[in-house]
Write a structure and sequence with these properties.
The complex is a heterotrimer of chains A (about 280), B (about 300) and C (about 375). Helix content of chain A is about 35%, strand content about 20%. Chain A is of the alpha/beta class and about 280 residues long. In chain A, about 45% of the residues are buried. Chain B is mainly alpha-helical and about 300 residues long. Chain B has a single domain, classed as ABC transporter involved in vitamin B12 uptake, BtuC, CATH 1.10.3470. Chain B has a two-stranded antiparallel sheet. Chain B has a two-stranded antiparallel ribbon with strand order 2-3. The longest helix of chain B is centred in the N-terminal third of the chain and has 32 residues. In chain B, about 50% of the residues are buried. Chain C is an all-alpha fold. Chain C has a domain of about 220 residues. Chain C is about 70% helix and about 0% strand. Chain C has a two-stranded antiparallel ribbon with strand order 1-2. In chain C, a hairpin with a 2-residue loop joins β1 and β2. The longest helix of chain C has 28 residues. Chain C is globular. The two termini of chain C are about 15 Å apart. Classes of the chains: A alpha/beta (about 280), B mainly alpha (about 300), C mainly alpha (about 375). At the B-C interface, α4, α10 and α12 of B face α7, α13 and α15 of C.
């Protein structure tokens, strides 16, 4: 297990997410090798590393798509006791309060922007599906209206209001990334995973992204873990950074420590981070 | 059950199973390359049987010539099906090609009914193929020996082609990654056509032997054997040629033996294969010899 | 649209009511002025629309490629017929094997039998969906087709229940135009409301991207099972209505051809479009009947052509392939009918003419 230099026991109850000794193989290949890490409540944390380091695999373990070979994932919803979420089905993990976006945007392409966000809100809906067949359940009718209005309000807040009735697949790239975040927020998460939010953005857009991510955290009371290759974004927004290389955790700390860590420079040799 | 009876059933099972296997190879090869269930494959099998019927019984051509005509006709039909119904849909969603395949199958069946009438036609079996001889109390019909022998020879030749020739290498490489293979300069469409040709040719051979075995031909004769052969392909592990043969033999064995041991179940004979399919898909969807195809997240 | 402006909504409701009144008038007048054959075709349009809608729910909206519709129709048709047939009729009919004693006195009125047909088809749909909906794409198609065929074999062999190969005869022709269109409107209204609710969004989301739907907290398996079960309910009711119009049923009625016909309706109309399934049913049902002329002997002057049985299915299958190759989205794509769209047409056409543009694109 990698040594975690600022992992002190007293802080542990402030963790929203704890990974402990997560190992996962595909066939003979070890994709993630006994990784232990944590995210503090209210923090914006980063997970970085060269391609193939196991970052997205770690996300897939957290969100329930892969079952780790060993180790566990512990999630603490706000004002609740920690729960082990290892091996839970993805939809249950979402219900517990974890939402995510995907590296290669996965929207519901045939639906409108509004419908995409409403779909996200379904997990918090209490009315049953059959209540909508006959218009005789005032509670269900009210709830449907509220879901619609809240989804519209959310789009407004994220600056997507003008696309509200457009087909999700027809949106410009940047707007699609934002919509994916809006859809994730509609599930009312307390913890958000962003998989390469700056991918495909120009320098100006990624500069805006820094503020956007901070605003998200503050307005929606979130803790955020993000995977990113754009080092300006990572260093600019992340309060704590974890570095994976070849499935192993090689370093962690704030941006200054990561920048000067020789192991990280070695892993990224020749890349931007080595000279930063 | 006496041993000689069991041997009798076993020979029967191997005969039937190797026919399923021959048809299954066409399904498994096309699925391996295009991820498409070629619904029309069972109908190509039927066409092969009809071609040989017309050549030898209607037009009194010699059997050898009839077989060549039937195989060539089936290959041509298979190539046409690919060209007209599947090739325009190579980049469409997979289910679109599947619906097109259903449409083509439906077309061949109904067009055959219009052209050949729905009435079954008797096939006159050459005497030397059906005159039984007996060895140690077990009756042998030469046809029942010839069918598996021909099937195994053809499969052997096919395996040699797949693993020892350039075309075979191209085929394996397409089934692994079609885009990369295209970039390597392989004429993908030519290889796909070759796959259809081989599958259709083998189906025609199976169709001819089927017509001799049962001895009749009818327009819908391809549906049930075709379907069962597909199940055999899934059972053996879709994409695997030895698997298809193995699956065919297993299916033939299950069908013949269950009816032999439980004669009251004979009405449900055709249901066994479907039950088997559901069980395989639930227990081991990759089949006996198949590889796992993973979803990428 | 967040909400229609209330003026438009009132106008649209009035238009809908007026159309329903027109439909009612048509249904009232049709039996008086049209011959029995034409009335039957109008009847079949409604039944096929129910069947099309139910398959569309499963395939077009929830994205599950099912080829088992004929099987669920068979369940519905047999359940309804067995409940309606009187003990006297039953005692006359079972020749090969005696009828199962518990079945002899089982009797229910027509409407109850329709409901039971739907419920039992849904029950079997639910039961079979639990194992097979874990499969994706084309494997699901094959498994459902297999199930449908097993069912046919069971029907042909379970003589004490189904009367085996002889089938059931003398089912009263309960399916009047009012019955079939009444059922269609009820089912249509239910499907529209369901698909307009947020659960409808969830069903479509599962079709578009199952992994993303899971991440959004959707229990995709449960959603698929539900959509499949509701679709099977529709197939059961449709099958029951069909039995009550044809009055004779046997296992050969429910072959894969039956499923193809419904698949054709859904594909032609537009996968995922409710409007499309209704249009598809009108077009396919009428065309299937109209094409019968190619199967009858034709005499043009001194030239006489023999009828060719199967010819209409040849044309039909070619049409299916042509639609898939040249217009995969069918008539409607995933769009739906709305009064706003219809009423905006004249202005749109005028604009197009005024701008002198070619009649292409823009709607």
């Amino acid at each position: 297990m990698a040594r975690l230099d600022n992992f002190s026991r007293t802080d542990e109850k402030d963790n929203v997410l704890t990974l402990s000794g997560i190992t996962i193989h595909f066939g003979g290949l070890v994709a993630v090798d006994s990784v232990s890490m944590y995210v503090r409540r209210g923090a914006i944390a980063g997970l970085i590393g060269p391609n193939g380091a196991g970052k997205t695999t770690a996300f897939n373990v957290i969100t329930g798509f892969y079952k780790p070979f060993s180790g566990y994932v512990e999630f603490t919803p706000p004002n609740a006791s920690p729960m082990k979420i290892t091996g839970l089905e993805p939809h249950k993990i979402c219900k517990a309060g974890i939402a995510r976006t995907f590296q290669n945007i996965r929207l519901f392409g045939n639906g409108t922007v509004l419908e995409n966000v409403m779909t996200g809100a379904y997990v918090r809906q209490s009315g049953k599906w059959w209540m909508n067949i006959l218009p005789i359940f005032p509670g269900a009718i009210r709830e449907e209206r509220e879901v619609r209005e809240q989804a519209a309000a959310l789009l407004e807040r994220l600056g997507l209001a003008r696309f509200i009735n457009a087909h999700a697949a027809s949106l410009p790239y940047g707007a699609q990334r934002r919509l994916e975040i809006a859809r994730a927020l509609a599930t009312k998460p307390s913890f958000l995973l962003l998989d390469e939010p700056a991918a495909g953005m120009n320098p100006q857009e990624s500069a805006e992204l820094l503020n956007f991510i901070r605003t998200l955290r503050d307005e929606f009371d979130l803790s955020i873990l993000l995977i990113e290759h754009d080092m300006k974004v990572v260093m600019g927004v992340c309060e704590h950074i974890w570095v994976l290389d070849d499935g192993r955790l090689i370093a962690d700390g704030d941006s200054a420590r990561i920048r000067s860590n020789p192991k990280v420079i070695e892993a990224y040799l020749g890349k931007e981070a080595a000279h930063a | 059950m006496a041993l000689n009876m069991f041997l009798q059933h076993l020979i029967n099972a191997v005969g039937l199973g190797s026919l399923y296997g021959l048809i299954a190879i066409g399904y498994t090869m096309v699925y391996g390359i295009l991820r498409l269930i070629n619904f029309a494959h069972g109908d190509i099998f039927m066409l092969g049987a009809y071609f040989v019927f017309f050549a030898t019984i209607r037009y009194k051509l010699p059997w050898a010539l009839g077989v060549i005509i039937a195989v060539a006709g089936a290959i041509l039909s298979g190539l046409l099906v690919d060209l007209i119904a599947y090739k325009p849909l190579r980049n469409a969603p997979r289910i679109s090609a599947l619906i097109s395949a259903i449409g083509v199958s439906f077309f061949i069946e109904n067009a055959s009914m219009v052209a050949f009438t729905a009435k079954p036609q008797a096939v006159i079996q050459p005497k030397q193929l059906v005159e039984a001889f007996s060895v140690g109390g077990v009756r042998f019909v030469p046809l029942n020996i010839i069918v598996p022998v021909i099937s195994f020879i053809l499969v052997g030749m096919l395996l040699w082609m797949i693993y020892r020739t350039k075309q075979g290498l191209a085929m394996r490489s397409i089934s692994h990654d079609i885009e990369t293979t295209r970039l390597m300069g392989v004429s993908v469409n030519r290889i796909i056509a070759l796959t259809f040709a081989i599958g259709s040719g083998l189906a025609a051979v199976a169709g001819i032997m089927w017509a001799l075995r049962y001895p009749k031909v009818e327009p819908l004769m391809g549906f049930t054997p075709g379907f069962k052969a597909f199940i055999a392909a899934v059972f053996g592990g879709i994409g695997s040629i030895p698997g298809a043969m193995l699956g065919g033999l297993a299916l033939g064995f299950i069908e013949i033996m269950s009816v032999a041991f439980f004669p009251t179940l004979s009405g449900y004979k055709d249901a066994f294969a479907f039950v088997l399919l559901v069980i395989i898909l639930l227990v081991k969807p990759t089949g006996l010899m198949g590889e796992k195809l993973e979803d990428k997240i | 649209m967040i909400a229609d402006s209330s003026g438009n909504r009132i106008r649209n409701n009035i238009l809908t009511l007026a159309s329903l009144a027109l439909l009612a008038a048509f249904l009232w007048l049709a039996p008086k002025y049209l011959d029995g054959y034409k009335v039957r075709i109008i009847n079949l349009i409604a039944i096929n629309a129910i069947l099309g809608l139910s398959l569309n729910l499963i395939y077009g909206m929830a994205g599950m490629f099912s080829l088992g519709h004929a099987g669920f129709m068979a369940i519905g048709a047999y359940v309804s017929a067995l409940l309606i047939l009187t003990p006297e009729q039953k005692s006359m009919m079972w020749i090969l094997d005696p009828i199962a004693p518990w079945l002899m006195d089982l009797h229910a009125p027509f409407y109850a039998s329709l409901l039971m047909a739907g419920i039992l088809a849904a029950f079997f749909g639910w039961l079979i969906s639990l194992p097979i909906l874990r499969l994706g794409g084309d494997y699901l198609g094959i498994a459902t087709l297999g199930f449908s065929e097993i069912l046919r074999i069971l029907i042909a062999n379970l003589t004490s229940i189904t009367n085996g190969p002889i089938g059931l005869k003398g089912i009263p022709a309960h399916t009047s135009l009012w019955v079939s269109y009444g059922c269609l409107l009820l089912f249509l209204a239910a499907v529209i409301r369901l698909m307009k609710s947020n659960f409808g969004n969830v069903i479509r989301a599962v079709r578009d991207d199952e992994i993303a739907a899971k991440t959004m907290g959707v229990n995709t398996f449960r959603t698929k099972v539900l959509a499949f079960t509701i679709g099977c309910f529709g197939a059961g009711v449709g099958g029951a209505l069909m039995g009550n119009i044809i009055t004779t049923i046997d296992s050969k009625m429910f072959t894969i051809t039956q499923t193809y016909n419904i698949l054709m309706i859904v594909v032609i109309g537009g996968l995922g479009s409710i409007t499309g399934s209704i249009l598809g049913s009108v077009i396919i049902t009428t065309m299937l009947e109209w094409l019968r002329f190619v199967e009858n002997p034709i005499t043009i002057g001194a030239f006489r052509m023999d009828g060719k049985p199967g010819m209409r299915m040849v044309i039909f299958s070619l049409l299916l392939v042509a639609v898939i190759i040249f217009r995969r989205e069918g008539i409607m794509g995933m769009r739906e009918f709305s009064w706003d769209w219809v009423l905006s047409r004249p202005a749109a056409v005028r604009n197009r003419l005024a701008s002198g543009g070619t009649p292409k694109g823009g709607d």
